[in-house]
Design goal:
The model is unreliable at 1-7 (pLDDT under 50). The protein has helices at 18-38, 51-69, 78-84, 94-101, 116-128, 130-136, 170-173, 192-198, 200-213, 215-221, and strands spanning 2-3, 10-11. The chain has a two-stranded antiparallel sheet with strand order 1-2. 48% of the residues lie in helices and 2% in strands. Helix 2 (51-69) packs parallel to helix 9 (200-213).
């Protein structure tokens, strides 16, 4: 069982789940960030995290701290801006509005937060997507996959042009009354397991960043 150090939320995860490793990486990243921000005691990573993942989390924390300690003030009213771009949010939330009126971090710039090993893993995972990316482009399709919006593929391309969505149950999430969510169509192919394994570590690092910069969204997604 894992319990967040900064939340009252208690969750139970099986140790065999990939999500367990992701969650522990996020716990370590958040604790290390808070320790370095406040000058606290050193944080020891879980034994379930391999060396590459710990090094990736450490690199991420270094850049999160640099960004946190070097803020750039923007001359905009974020409360008014938020109101103007949220026409669907018609409710009245005094707690949220009070936070918006305070100083808030609206963007984190982390230009060198990924280790070389992580970047190589991302490129390797991207190569596995080539067949699906090639099949995604259609002559007469919607704006997302219409051929006119993509340049022709060539041997010199590092990545194959295309558009796919790997979000689990993505189609069902956009519809109500779906009792039995299914795996997204892009993840039903023969190479799905390889793709999921290939993106596991990069996804864990991205989720660890989310845990620090937007903890509410992290817990909502978990």
């Amino acid at each position: 069982m894992n319990v967040s150090s900064t939340s009252d939320i208690e969750i139970t995860l099986w140790h065999t789940w990939a999500l367990t490793v992701t969650h522990e990486a996020c716990e370590y990243t958040e604790q290390k960030f808070n320790a370095e921000k406040t000058g606290g005691d050193p944080v020891i990573p879980s034994l379930n995290l391999d060396t590459d993942l710990v090094m990736a989390c450490d690199r991420l924390v270094d850049w999160l701290i640099k960004a946190y300690k070097n803020p750039i003030q923007m001359p905009i009213n974020i409360a008014r801006y938020s109101k103007l771009i949220s026409p669907k949010d018609t409710g009245h939330n005094e707690e949220r509005e009070e936070k918006l009126l305070e100083s808030a971090i609206i963007t984190w710039y982390l230009p060198d937060a990924l280790t070389d090993a992580t970047q190589k893993e991302i490129w390797a995972a991207s190569d596995l997507l080539t067949p699906m990316l090639e099949q995604s482009i259609k002559v007469d399709s919607n704006w997302r996959t219409n051929q006119r919006w993509f340049k022709p593929s060539s041997e010199n391309d590092v990545l194959t042009p295309g558009c796919i969505n790997l979000s689990l149950a993505w189609f069902q999430q956009g519809h109500e009354n779906q009792l039995d969510p299914q795996v997204s169509a892009s993840l039903k192919g023969a190479s799905s397991e390889k793709i999921l394994k290939a993106i596991a570590r990069p996804a864990a690092i991205a989720t660890a960043a989310l845990r620090v910069v937007h903890p509410e969204q992290y817990w909502a997604g978990l």
